[in-house]
Amino acid sequence: MDTKDASFHTNGAASAVEATAVDDDASPRAVDLYLAGIGSVGRALLEQLANRPGDHLSLRLTGACTSRRAYWLDDDTPPSALLQRRIPYEATDWNQILAHLTSDRTRPLIFIDATGHPDVARKYPALLQQGIHVVTPSKHANTFEQSYFDELHRLAHTHRASYRYETTVGAGLPVVQAVQDLVATGDEVTAIQGAASGTLTFIFSQLDDGVPFSEAVRLAAERGYTEPDVRDDLSGEDVARKFLILARSAGLRIERGHLSVESLVPPRLQDLDRPAVLDQLSTLDAGWQRRVESAHRQGWVLRYVGHLERGRISVGVQALPRDSAFGRLQGTDNLFAITTDRYADAPLLI
User: Fold this and answer.
1) Catalytic (active site) residue 4
2) Is the four-CA dihedral 299, 302, 306, 309 of positive or negative sign?
3) CA torsion 86→90→96→100, rounded to 10°?
4) What angle do CA 148, 115, 82 make, to 5 degrees?
5) CA distance 304 to 278
6) What is the rounded CA–CA span in Å between residue 153 and residue 78?
């Protein structure tokens, strides 16, 4: 994940901190934070905490962990100490971590999951039922089985805990909140169309400029836009998970197996070693050039988009008018068009 995305995700955590750090009477409260995951997103959050100016919120980082190391901070240890790993640690034991977090708390606690690991996402119920707020940019929890999604929201409501996951879908765009607000005020979401992958937007805008498919993917990788294995982006699974989250946030009940997803990875490349994939992508260049030229002749461009309508989700390549909002997308931009009963004539664009 590139620095831009890390900043988007940590901004989502920061806004959740603001929301959960206020009493019912709107007076500020001191808040403890626990950070799981010190990768690109976790480190960006630590840097924000270390450089944060003093204001009405009192934030205290009580601990953090990686897959192997667990750190506990006293009141005098600044978050910056974790960036240099200059403090003692113990082996990561989730039973001990959960026991520590859920016992004898005197201040509100926000658990921030920046690991992207499914096992950590399965620990949210134990936290929420203790009134611990959960914030995450990870898509895992919301794309497990529908019953798990329902349980997380039930526990958050029952135990007055916040469960925030805005940046799982639109990076820095307030898409999830917009959908939830529309539904909460009595509107009904009838369709959502979205270019939900900055990586794929970049690749397809490069194709518009005549760059071969393999070179566009390689350039995206060099700039840090892709996952370490580019097939994770090209498979369409990232966009599929984002639309599953949007659908569920809109009140639909839907399982992952009900989605139609077009992968850009042909079967012959699926079992190759990671380094060999980029070398073999050049075999796809001619086919993509024909698709792009065919679209251009009709005044269209190709974009990788998701579409939710009538309770069904499809994700894949679409030819769209060049002068449309989606056709004008450049760089790594995301765009969502939300159609509802209120926004029936013209969709809400985010």
Assistant:
1) no
2) positive
3) -30
4) 140
5) 20
6) 33
Query: Which one of 4, 123, 139, 242 is the catalytic residue?
Result: 242
Q: In sequence order, which residues have a C-beta less than 8 Å from that of residue 299 and are 6 or more positions away? A: 321, 322
**Measured distance CA(31)–CA(29) in Å, rounded:** 6
Quote the pTM value: 0.89
One-letter amino acid of 176? V
How many Cβ atoms are within 10 Å of 66's Cβ, its own excluded?
A: 17
> In terms of C-beta distances under 8 Å and separation of at least 24 residues, what long-range contacts does 81-84 make, across chains too?
82/38, 82/46, 83/43, 83/46, 83/47, 83/50
Distances from the Cα of 91 to the Cαs of 66, 77, 202, 348, in angstroms? 9, 20, 40, 48
pLDDT 10s digits, 194-248: 999 999 999 999 999 999 999 999 999 999 999 889 999 999 999 999 999 999 9
The tokens describing 107, both together, are: 């201040």
Q: In sequence order, what DSSP letters do the residues of 99-141 get, joined into one string?
A: HHHHSS--S-EEEEE-S--HHHHTTHHHHHTTT-EEE---SHH
Distance, CA of 313 to CA of 219 (rounded, Å): 30
**Whether residue 4 has pLDDT greater than 50:** no
CB 233 within 8 A of CB 200: yes
Q: Can you tell me the distance from the alpha carbon of 280 to that of 259, in angstroms, rounded to the nearest whole number?
A: 28
Q: How many residues comprise the chain?
A: 350
**Cα distance between residue 147 and residue 25, in whole Å:** 34
Residue listed under structure tokens 């909460």? 184
